[in-house]
Amino acid sequence: MTEAVLETVPDALSAHELSVGYDTRQGRLQALRDVSLDVRAGEIVGVVGESGCGKSTLISTLMRLLPENAHVADGCVELDGEDILTASPRRLRAMRGREMSVVFQDPMTSLNPVLTIGRQMRDIQYREGISKAEKDRRAAHMLGRVGLPDPEAKLRTYPHELSGGMRQRVAIAMATLMHPKLLIADEPTTALDATLEVQIIALLQEIQAEIGCAILFISHHLGVIAELCDRVVVMYAGETVEEGPVADIFEHPAHPYTAKLIECDPGRLKQRAETLPSIPGSLPDLTDPPPGCIFRDRCDLATDLCARQRPSRRAVTPGRWSACHHAEKVSP
Ligand SMILES: Nc1ncnc2c1ncn2[C@@H]1O[C@H](COP(=O)(O)OP(=O)(O)OP(=O)(O)O)[C@@H](O)[C@H]1O
Ligand SMILES: [Mg+2]
To answer: How close are the terminal C-alpha atoms of the chain, in Å?
Structure first.
């Protein structure tokens, strides 16, 4: 989508200043701090960041699937203008699947091992006033759509009778069966081999074009994000540090963390490396986050200012921002 078009497209999802903590034996762990994110109708937005930076916590917050020890300290989430964080459990059940749905890394998270695929796909359609035969017909159509051979027979199988790649296709068919406005995918290709990963990405693109849903796609792999997404949000240690159109960010990152992620992305390494490079250092202790910039301990550009003052979001170019005091020095 071009920028002029984007400005007129409404938000499918809007998350504003989300702060979420987990109670742990070491104290409250600040998993998200002031995270804001918009996904416009029909847009594909990627969220990237290394393990432990809060990607799954963000998704669980958006879907209201947080565990008991989690607390939303601040912020709001709206799906098509409706407040998710205060919606009744009944309303939430009605919204899940129909208005927003999720595909997890491990398809078994969303599949019930003791029910046939057909039964599970009928259950998703429980509010539709149509016959069992029609529900099966729609389910089989969707299974065919995601590339499963002999979809009618697949309705009678149990999840364990399918391969991992097939199970992920079933999970995508289930998540998109009701044509949700927003599809959230949490590392849906990480457990698959490279060929299957390419197929699943192509499938998501096709389905998105067909049903017009917005997609929020989570990955720690920049190459996958670049392939699929219009825009990317970069997360580090529970904060969003940079956001903008994928191509611009790849060409000219404006946050030192993004630049290091690109350097370490296996898909972009020119020579085959013996061991995959990783960003030196580790995530800060999130039960006691340091003052100033959250990335400064691992940053080559860090100065006294970074130790004293938490950087706020600064516009880099139209539609792009970076939370770095030295954004202009990142891609000279
Ligand atoms: N239920 C929980 N209780 C306590 N801490 C948790 C819980 N779930 C996650 N955390 C912590 O919150 C932080 C963010 O975790 P999260 O799972 O959101 O990261 P992630 O970016 O999804 O990582 P990955 O790429 O490994 O999936 C981590 O420090 C993690 O240890
Ligand atoms: Mg995760």
So the answer is: 27
